[in-house]
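Structure tokens please, single chain.
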Amino acid sequence: MGAIGFFAVCIAIIAIGWAICERIWIHSDGNDALQQTTPLERLTAAAVAGAMLWLGVNWLLALTHTLTRASLLIAAVACMIAALILIRRNFALPRAGVFALIVCLPIVLWIAYVLWRGFVLPPDNHDALAYHFPKAVFMAETHGYGYFVTADPRVTVLPANYELLLTDILHAFASNPLAPPYDKCWQTPQVAGAGFAELPSGIQVIGFTGRGYCFDNELPAHRVFVQPARISRSLVSNARWLEFMEDGGYLTPSLWLSDGWTALETEQWQAPGYWRNVDGAWFSMTLGGQRAIDPDAPVTHVSYYEADAFARWAGKHLPSEAEWEIAARADLLGDGFGAAWQWTRSAYLPYPGYSAVPGALGEYNGKFMVNQMVLRGSSHTTPADHSRATYRNLFYPSARWQFSGVRLLDYLA
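Here you go.
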């Protein structure tokens, strides 16, 4: 529903409110009370009454998940028909009232439209980018992030941390009872690969060794010892996660770390983040709006605690970041990049010999090397220049707002 439709609804709201107020005045004190009110007072009372009625109807529909743009358009047409009838029967404004209506009403309607657009209806891509772009540019200039080109022809460059802006948008839209889409054509990635692949074992080298840019936490390259193991070529799918849920995964304390079970009870986790049970069926809030769970898509928006519990339930382990990087270098991962960030069991700590770079940039990584876990790979919202085998992402173990998924590992006897 565009601006014209919105203004039509507002006029209809005022007309209906006018009729309601008029009937209340006549019923309570007779025509004398009605005659004693000025047109401006009647207009104000009508606007308040109509707005309260409309707001109530909107949120009633929102709470029952039936409010859509189509229903709003139908309601607008119905209200316009009612308005034509009510205006003909009830509007009898003197010239002063007409002047006040002409001058004040457009201002009030425009303010109402801006508020409606900002808090209820989702912005289109251009609006969202225009709103978030100043913040993104500020972050880029402050922290020195790179730029990347988007697929949107209206925006030529954006900072690399635009991924975080998309996660912010998803979180905001998921909190909206209308569950609006950011992009109706948004495609969710599918799991790729099958089975397990044997890792190169023994002494291996991890860390950034090539030419070009990297973050200081990817340095220095160093040797690690890797036990014989097999790593899953594919991420854990939604179908597999549903099996975990149906088997009581969220109800079995023995599967969970102590802090994880505390987080589960505190936050009342019953499913991954942004999942909703509607009439017995599971749906997920995505950047394309609320959709039925795709069984072949990788599970996302799970915490480290959930990933660890799932691995224990499956009789497997989460890989260490060294094991993950070695697998990525050996091209053993079917969906290592571009699907979901993958939790590892490695705490976010400095590499042996690490030294923070001088200046403000040195605070970006070094000061966070405690109480957080490492994620590897990249998601479908990650810029290309942040998708490399040595890149180390980090989040607190309870975080679920990022596109974080799960990959399993199994040690060989």
